[in-house]
Design a protein that fits this description.
heterodimer, A: alpha+beta, Alpha-D-Glucose-1,6-Bisphosphate, Chain A, domain 4, disordered C terminus, B: Arc Repressor Mutant, subunit A, 73% helix
Chain lengths: 171, 121
């Protein structure tokens, strides 16, 4: 399966493409209007990172954000969530300033997905390619939108619907 | 069989090349809806929405059923439909996130340039 979802040409609003390159991997691509050095900083400096990682539409509040972007360094994001806050955390496994970052996602236990981001500058703009590699197809199917899932009645409903659909189409 | 599958896939991808149709699919992943409801939600005419639903239906992504005077649409019972709804939800999430990143980076880039101009003065 090699399915894509992307914006139609000429559309100003959505310039992000998503491609599921295998059962276990999804790749997100977007060109950001600025040099790789600054985009990289926005990924690795907590004061900048917290300004964009949680868009308002997610309906979640970031309580704290700690990033130690060195190989072996840890990150930890804590979100306000009822009944208690939820944390997303992991370890940086690759750190190449202005060109490449990789980190583990350990909130679900060991052997969680690994996120790899590359930054490629051209004409003052930066192509960001973000790859999420999951240990299994089930893990990727369940992942959806990471932190946003924690809030999700809406997503639970979707999940239920998909299970129901899967059962009915399997008949 | 392979030919049949390829044709179906082409129809699916063509159906999904349109933002409104992807939105309809995402909406139907949440709940069934009538064509009238979809037309209202996406702010278009009934005729326009009928066309979009027709394209999705021919691609096997959506099924419709007429009960009385209301035609109800639901997600087609196909893996691909689920996959596409999943992808669109995922894409939308990252799109919003990267829109914010764009804002932060543009602001920093602007600031850096104006700082440089200051220094040169």
């Amino acid at each position: 399966m090699n399915a894509r979802s992307e914006s139609k040409p000429g559309s100003v609003k959505s310039r992000t493409t998503v491609e599921r390159t295998s059962d276990r991997e999804v790749v997100v691509t977007r060109t950001i209007n600025g040099p790789a050095r600054i985009v990289y900083e926005a990924f690795t400096r907590a004061d900048l990172f917290e300004r964009w990682w949680v868009p308002r539409s997610m309906g979640m509040t970031l309580l704290s954000c700690d990033l130690d972007a060195r190989v072996g360094g840890k990150y930890r994001l804590v979100f306000d969530h009822s009944p208690e806050p939820v944390a997303f955390f992991g370890t940086y496994v690759e750190v190449k300033p202005y060109s490449r970052l990789a980190w583990t996602n350990e909130e679900g236990g060991e052997g969680g997905p690994v996120t790899t981001v590359t930054f490629e500058e051209k004409d003052g703009k930066t192509l960001v390619v973000l790859r999420e590699s999951h240990p299994s197809k089930e893990s990727l199917d369940a992942a959806g939108t990471g932190a946003a899932d924690a809030m999700g009645e809406q997503f639970d409903q979707l999940e239920e619907l998909l299970v129901a659909l899967g059962e009915s189409s399997g008949q | 069989m392979v030919q049949y599958l390829t044709t179906r896939l082409d129809a699916s991808f063509a159906a999904l090349s349109d933002a409104t149709r992807r939105g309809v699919l995402e909406q139907l992943a949440r709940a069934d809806a009538s064509i009238t409801e979809l037309a209202e939600q996406f702010q278009m005419t009934l005729t326009g929405m009928k066309k979009h639903v027709g394209v999705l239906e021919r691609a096997g992504l959506v099924t419709t059923k007429k009960i009385g005077r209301v035609r109800t649409c639901r997600l087609g019972p196909r893996r691909l439909a689920e996959e596409m709804a999943w992808l669109e939800r995922y894409r939308r999430h990252w799109d919003e996130r990267f829109d914010e990143l764009d804002r932060v980076v543009e602001e920093l880039t602007r600031k850096e340039k104006s700082d440089e101009r200051e220094k040169r003065k």
